[in-house]
């Protein structure tokens, strides 16, 4: 069990050069968008990872509040950080791609806006955890649950909001070879993200255990002092 | 029935304090005026058709600003007079505390809107369409403010114990309330355009409000109890809600000993 994340890291390291080679040398160039479309193979997996860990963070936060579970708390922190990290990747690659194909980095497309808002929610989650008042674990957990519930609502809200503006075309159907490349990239990035979350969650659990050890030692010392 | 009675009692208490000093309503109302004047200065040059597109944004941005200001104050009163713990010890349902604070916030927001909408109508001629459908306008403002306050009250309660942490409330509030604000924006746009689907959008906001109040009520107890436990953190470091702060202080204390 202890070595699984490291095995995943090694697997990701081995798979990643193959991904790059496959994306740039063995996958046909998309007819409409040209070479710029290559960024799709990293952009889409990152977006999926971002959404996935947002949902995981929300669920883990719910378990944390319900069961007072430290394991869930550690997982929620790690997943929240992964969401922000993958979100940065999505929000950097997205506008680059948009600039090359739509001619503008920001179109206000429903997915774009909802991803950006999701990212903001989880940055707020990390900020509250880090700089919040003493009870910030609970506030942050409530925030994560709200964030996970908000994801579909935000998407729908932006969609009806966009009906008052012109629609922009998004990628249509893709040939099978491109899908295969996409899934290999997804596998590499997924292995990397799971490994990182795993390691971070283990570290967060240690930190929580250390905090409790400090409190226990302190209470003992205080009990001993007046005697 | 009991829940409603308790909610009303708690809300009446807050509203009575408010009626004595008018602190929240006056400051928030004046802030609304300031924001409207600033909007007027910034956007006065817009011509009619553009104005109409900008007005929904102005309405809901102003409500978002005023809401953040109000929410920081709603729980401040409990914090300043140290009545939060008493409130939690009182034989009332926790849900009643949430609903009463929600009601107070809503009352303040609505009284600000009563200034905001006519003010905008005065300064921006194209927003006078609002008066064509007063029923829809009232429903829209009430539903939008209700959703905003439902999210806001929850997190304001959580941050109630920390005076300097108000910036965190805005950091949380704006991303989380975007869905309801976006729906409200769409509905306002449709109201101005006389769109046939206006009431459909309004019922969607109502459904969203139900979801937000439900989640808020469900999470309120955990968030608020954490806040109440942590207020005497320095006297009892082992209290449940503040493990990290207690650990930090324990570590600091143990240094001079070793």
TrEMBL record, chain A:
Keywords: Cytochrome c-type biogenesis, Membrane, Transmembrane, Transmembrane helix. One of its GO terms (biological process) is cytochrome complex assembly. It is a multi-pass membrane protein. InterPro entries: Cyt_c_assembly (IPR002541), Cyt_c_biogenesis_CcmC (IPR003557), Cyt_c_biogenesis_CcsA/CcmC (IPR045062). Pfam families: Cytochrom_C_asm (PF01578). Coiled coil: none annotated. GO terms for molecular function: heme binding; heme transmembrane transporter activity. It is found in: Membrane. Its main location: membrane. It comes from the Bacteria. One of its GO terms (cellular component) is plasma membrane. The chain crosses the membrane at residues 41-63, 75-98, 110-128, 140-158, 178-199. Residues 26-163 form the Cytochrome c assembly protein domain. Required for the export of heme to the periplasm for the biogenesis of c-type cytochromes. Belongs to the CcmC/CycZ/HelC family. PANTHER family: CYTOCHROME B_B6 PROTEIN-RELATED (PTHR30071:SF1), HEME EXPORTER PROTEIN C (PTHR30071). This is Heme exporter protein C. The gene is ccmC.
TrEMBL record, chain B:
InterPro entries: Cyt_c_biogenesis_CcmB. One of its GO terms (biological process) is cytochrome complex assembly. It comes from the Bacteria. The chain crosses the membrane at residues 21-46, 58-75, 95-117, 137-160, 167-186, 198-220. This is CcmB protein. It is found in: Membrane. Signal peptide: none annotated. Belongs to the CcmB/CycW/HelB family. One of its GO terms (cellular component) is plasma membrane. Residues 230-258 are annotated as: Disordered. Its main location: membrane. It holds the Pfam family CcmB. Residues 230-251 have a biased composition (Low complexity). Keywords: Cytochrome c-type biogenesis, Membrane, Transmembrane, Transmembrane helix, Transport. One of its GO terms (molecular function) is heme transmembrane transporter activity. It is a multi-pass membrane protein.
